[in-house]
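[job 0417] fold request received: Sodium ion-translocating decarboxylase, beta subunit
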Amino acid sequence: MELYLQSLAKVLGESGFAALTWGNIAMLLVAFVFLYLAIVKGFEPLLLVPIAFGCVLVNLPLSGIMDEGGFLRYIFFGTQHEIYPVIIFMGIGALTDFAPLLANPITFLLGAAAQLGVFIALFGAMMLGFSVKEAASIAIIGGADGPTSIYLTMKLAPQILGAVAVAAYSYMSLVPLIQPPVIKMFTTKADRAIRMDNLRPVSKLEKVLFPIVCTVAAGLLLPMSVPLIGILMFGNLLRECGATERLSQAAQNEILNATTIFLGLSVGATMSAADFLTIDTIKIIVLGLVAFVASTVGGTLFGQLMKIMSGGKINPMIGAAGVSAVPMAARVVQNVSQKENPGNFLLMHAMGPNVAGVIGTAVAASVMLTLLS
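[job 0417] inference complete; emitting structure tokens
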């Protein structure tokens, strides 16, 4: 009996229960909330489920899963060396139809205007005591582009990766909740009901040339943009050239899905209690929200300017889609529009600034890398 009790005491003493801290418990609760939002509420489940489960794994004490030689440490290699974000950009390129942007190129300006929050958050973060590299990493959350946020943060400030990634993906998943009240605040009922003319057809030649021209132009102007924009456009060329259907399907499905799993798990693995439960994390979460809201405001206000300059032919709401949360932001514009005018279809018009936002955020990140590396 004594031997049995000693064995039981030893097992309990070396179990995770004995090493469990209040910080671990808090992070496990955070992970459970993420799982609830993803599985029950449908908020970006493809991203939040791997992130949340990675958070669960890394906050179970004594597993060693994120230590040197641990499983997640090996998986983290792809995030640490910016491999996963770039591969995901290839998948996004293979999934994206740039025809709405090519049909109405002026909407590219809306994608640029929707980067306003990036620069507001940059100065806000520096005022709160972050270094300029940390501030740049936090500010890019305003672009609502998770892979770009991770890519830039690993280059400039890897010590805050967990908080930046969680903020970026959280706000991407909350686009349907955050954007509608902001859009309504800066548009009138009459604005939201504006119908736009049908887009012109885009030829196959235009679609094939666009990724090639864009890669060369961006690469020569901003060499730091080549890993993101170059691979994004490579994925799009696979889609549009018509000669690589199998590769395009692989980039859109198997490769993208596998990489999303590895990226999500490794981002979640950065959310250990010791690293995540800090005052700086709260600041980053708040600054990320400020950046995202300000980007929506910037796009909408520029949409108002374009409405005036076009004689009322452009619905200013499509400017809000200039953040790069594709295609959620465009869908939000469509939904808000249809509530005002059920016969109005703005989805394809909003996709123009939406895909421009992907390029705009990558360009903003490249500018920061060029200036700060």
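[job 0417] notes: The chain has a mean pLDDT of 89. The chain has 22 helices and no strands.
[job 0417] exit 0
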